[in-house]
Amino acid sequence: MPSPPDTREVILEARDLTREFDGVKALDKFSFKLHRGEVLGLLGANGAGKTTAMNCLLGLTLPTSGELNAFGLPLQANRIQILQRSNFSSAYTALPGNLLVWQNLSVFARIYGVPNPKKKIAELMELLEISHLSKRVTGQLSAGESTRVNLVKAFLNDPELLMLDEPTASLDPDIADKVRKVVRKVQRERSIAILYTSHNMRDIEEVCDRVIFLHKGKIVREGTPADIVAQSSSDNLEDVFIKIARDGEILDEPKKDSAV
Amino acid sequence: MNFRIVSALVMRHLFLYSRTPMRMVELVFWPLVDLVVWGNVTVFIQKNSDEKFGGFILFFLGAMILWDILFRAQQGVAISFLEDVWTRNLLNIFVAPVRTAEYLSSTFFVGFLRILITCVVMSFVSWIGYSFNIFQLQWWLVPFFLNLMVFGWALGMISTALILRWGQAAESLAWAVPFFIQPVVCVFYRVEDMPSWSQPIAWLFPATPIFEGMREVMKTGTMSWSHLWVAAGLNVIYLTLAGWLFVWVLNLTRKRGLLTKFATQ
Ligand SMILES: Nc1ncnc2c1ncn2[C@@H]1O[C@H](COP(=O)(O)OP(=O)(O)OP(=O)(O)O)[C@@H](O)[C@H]1O
Ligand SMILES: [Mg+2]
């Protein structure tokens, strides 16, 4: 059953986004819309194209073809304006390891022009339960601590659009749960639009309003996590994931062969 | 151009230098070694030769200090960029609303600060150790100083572009690039002392008229305007071309999708 069209403002839109690497399509006519206040999950096996999609959306990688708009503006021509209203965090990036945590956060607060940066940083650190890390050397933090510091950076400018690439990778189940809850809480309070990737199905089910399954750069499923499970012969998202990862191409036309 | 952003990026480097004193040591140590070695060599030559070499120490130490200005300015740009590569910070900066011009300006400013530190140390030591007062070099040298710094920035952008293009394997270019041109820009000798076939090459670089001009100022005590204008003109060209090269390589890296690989390695 098709869901009613979303009437909220479109924050991010990709149309026929294609990105080739040496003739291989990492993204193949990928189109989607992300609305204000919506959390959209990007799912797919290793190499499915999730990070490539995010990098294109951040302007880090240029698409081979296709159109990208954020806040109704073409991405390439308005990068700076768009980036001022967005932010990004990934388990695979870090803030400079040789500075103290508060120093790193002050630098980025200043880059983003955060009013009253000290207060903002303290608030966010408290929210993520890392106030005690303020005077620590960034490079000496554990993976989970460093992920949360990155998240503070990502929330600094009250972004309207947030891209999170595997934010809970390397977090223990307890911290992962806390991080999910914080992300969800802040997201709801401020109606942030989030693009979220994760290999953790628990993450996806708890955080995402809607998910897109990518397989070799193409969308093979789209809908709420519950709908996707309901449309398949599996009884949970993890099984759906495994099926798509193993025989994604057979399932290229999900609507026909899916049991309703 | 947003100065708040430039100052934020400079602040990052100030934090860095304040946290890692080894970086300060590097700024002070190498110039000192150079100065002491060449200072002693000059004293030796002076003692063992006739009157003709009277002004030699002045030229030599002057050239040393000026060369260091060029090197420090270039390093300010190249090393600042490498610091962001080493700490995997590039990605954070590229996804922040930082314009290329703002990023580069912050590295220029770091270059300027490095020069300031080096200059203070070198002039102090050359004054104490060799009674060489850098301020006897005349105020006319200041425009040459500035031009040298600008040329250093251009070289820094070129080094950075090459590193961005060839990856971290090319890192040593950050230190090597100034020395590629050192033989032809007449730091320690005059253009006319070079083999005649190589003389036209010397004039392709703004550093040549700067060092020639410096020697003339020191010798005659009057301003060598022609050298200054040639240097400034060449600098405008170099700065423009180097900036263009950097932006071009940056876009190429984006096109190839290598920016993130570079930034997260
Ligand atoms: N710069 C590049 N050059 C060549 N190929 C690339 C480049 N970047 C990505 N690819 C290829 O594009 C495909 C998609 O990669 P991408 O990183 O987007 O996958 P992903 O969905 O994020 O996977 P993972 O779950 O492992 O993070 C892969 O086959 C990858 O090898
Ligand atoms: Mg990925």
Radius of gyration of chain A: 18 Å
Report how far apart the termini of chain A are: 9 Å
Cα(first) to Cα(last) distance of chain B is 30 Å
* Helical percentage of chain A: 25-40%
**Beta strand count of chain A:** 10
This entry's quaternary arrangement is heterodimer
Structural class of chain B: mainly alpha
Description:
The complex is a heterodimer of chains A (260) and B (265). Chain A is 37% helix and 25% strand. Chain A is α/β, with parallel strands linked by helices and 260 residues long. The C terminus of chain A is likely disordered. Chain B is mainly α and 265 residues long. Chain B has 11 helices and no strands. In chain B, helix 2 runs antiparallel to helix 3 and helix 6 packs across helix 7. The relative contact order of chain B is 0.13. At the A-B interface, helix 1, helix 2, strand 6 and helix 3 of A face helix 1, helix 4, helix 10 and helix 11 of B. Magnesium ion (MG) binds next to helix 1 of chain A.
In short:
Chain A has helices at residues 50-57, 79-84, 101-111, 117-127, 143-155, 173-190, 201-207, 225-231, 237-247, 254-257, and strands spanning 10-21, 24-35, 39-43, 65-70, 73-74, 86-90, 161-165, 193-197, 210-215, 218-223. Chain A is α/β, with parallel strands linked by helices. A six-stranded mixed β-sheet of chain A has the order 6-7-8-3-9-10, sandwiched between helices. A four-stranded antiparallel β-sheet of chain A has the order 2-1-4-5, with helices on one face.
